[in-house]
Amino acid sequence: MRPDHLHYLGKSHTNALERAYSNVKYALVYYLGLYVFGAVEADTLEPWLFPDQNTYSNPTCTSDEIRKVFDKAIDDAQSFLATGMLPHLLPSDLDKILEPPPKSLETPVGSLIWLLAEPHGWLPGYIFEPTHLQTKRGVTNKHLKSMLKQVKGKPEKYYVIYTFAIHRLTIYNRAKARTEPWECPEHELFVHGFPPERKNPLLPTALKEVQAFIKAKHNQKTLTLEQDFRIKLSWKRNSLSSATPSEVDPETEEESEGYSSDEIASAETSGMNKPDGNGKDRLKETKLTMGVTSTGSLNQPTDHDVIVIDDSSDEEYGETQVKIATVDVNVKVKGDTNTSSIKLESNQSSHEGQPKKRKTICPPCGLELREERKKKTNKEQYEESLEPKVNMFPNGVAWGNMKGSIWWPVYICNRTKWWRATVQQDDKTRTFGIYCFGSHKMKRRQFSMASLKPWRSPDAKQIFEGTLEAIGHKSFDKVSMFEDAQEEAENFFSEFNQIQDYLGLDDELRKLNDD
């Protein structure tokens, strides 16, 4: 028998196997119905077809649960006699010379899985994006730093898996990780605890968390990490430049530059809840939002529900420690009074009693606007003031031309630019900060007015169908992301309009009361 991991039962057999090998008086047995191993004295065993077997096959027990397990064991025995296969044991488990079945190494990042997390048993897990992780000076040990560097260098060889209920990120070799797809044939067994005899107190909590995760709306899915970590924004070049020397890990400073991920979090995979100098647990909680499909395959994590930038720093873009536990909306633009309401709750008691600092997601853009105005002559400013101004991109949502016939739903962050757009679309190229729906990424990109279209323009249907056709031959994932992006943008646009209507109604009521 294989002495190390069994395919489904892990290391549950090792103690019994060691005892049976070390003492010839004991035999290794596999209890059908219970699916656990034991080492029993050989002289207490009887052959299957012996004269008094009927007295054993009809036990006098009062427990319905025991009777149910016994009946299941009888069925397993009959099945073994007919097929020669033991339940939940593969031929490679019984004969170490045989090769185990090949493992699929193509499980995509952002997928829900079942993970054999010893010694707890099978628990729900989520495959995390390794480029979202960054080691932190004074927190992460040297072994993890080395492993994380290998993961980022060879992401096709390693998994970074988040385990529900344990709330921990762990690095696994893909070829050795004991994982099964979320909707695998053994799904029901794992849901009820497998093997049944092994008590797994974490399973109910894990199932509750994963069900809430699946049922949440598309871009409101959350994972909780009970570890020290830092979140950064990728749309700043050299995202570590604004970090203080005490926070930056010099061993990983170079490799973090140039990442296109939405956030970089640094986390420990072991040694959680270490006490700080005051004897208190360094326990911080954040929520990383995910997108999920009906099959359990998720998009990459996004940060638009959790990132809060402290504008009191000298840098326009910079890293920040996460200071919130709950954020109710996706995006808030600085200076935009017509935004959805935001609910912030601090979860760091050390900040109580201190003045609250202004928080926003988008960087200030007033300085850029002033510099642009300085370049204009008085005559140009006068002529521009005579041109009629319209709101070409209501709520900032637009179609942006990315390449050729491919248009993408975007949110224009530079409100002072799109709000002042003229009726006549000129050919002048402007640099916009945009948020891409679907991919959930922040970018800076140059657009002419001809390469931006209002969200509900007459050409919207033609734009959608043309883009769908253009990317349809590339990959199914791109098509799915584009459809999700269109749905997200439409929902944002509609909800924003409702808020605008409410604000307009409040103004009218206020005027009536004043009269």
Quick structural summary:
The chain is an alpha+beta fold and 515 residues long. It contains twelve helices and 14 strands.
Tell me what the structure shows.
With 515 residues, the chain is of the alpha+beta class. Among the domains are: 82 residues, no CATH class; 122 residues, SH3 type barrels (Roll), CATH 2.30.30; 116 residues, SH3 type barrels, CATH 2.30.30. Helix content is 28%, strand content 15%. The strands form four sheets. Strands 6-5-4-3-7 form a five-stranded antiparallel β-sheet. A five-stranded antiparallel β-sheet has the order 13-12-11-10-14. Strand 12 and strand 13 form a beta hairpin. Helix 11 packs antiparallel against helix 12. The longest helix is centred in the C-terminal third of the chain and has 39 residues. About 28% of the residues have low confidence. This is PWWP domain-containing protein. InterPro entries: PWWP_dom (IPR000313).
Please give the order of strands in the largest beta sheet: 6-5-4-3-7
Rg over C-alpha atoms, rounded to the nearest angstrom? 30 Å
Derived structural class: alpha+beta
Order of helices and strands: HEEHHHEEHEEEHHEEHHEEHEEEHH
Write down how many β-strands occur, each being a DSSP E stretch of 2 or more residues.
14
Structural descriptors:
single chain; 515 residues; alpha+beta; SH3 type barrels; 5-stranded antiparallel β-sheet; 12 helices; 28% helix; 15% strand; elongated; PWWP_dom; PWWP domain-containing protein
List the helices and strands and how they pair.
Blueprint lengths: L13 H9 L3 E6 L4 E6 L11 H5 L6 H20 L7 H4 L17 E6 L3 E8 L13 H12 L4 E6 L4 E6 L5 E3 L5 H5 L11 H13 L93 E2 L48 E2 L5 H9 L3 H9 L10 E7 L2 E7 L2 H4 L10 E8 L4 E8 L3 E3 L5 H13 L3 H39 L1
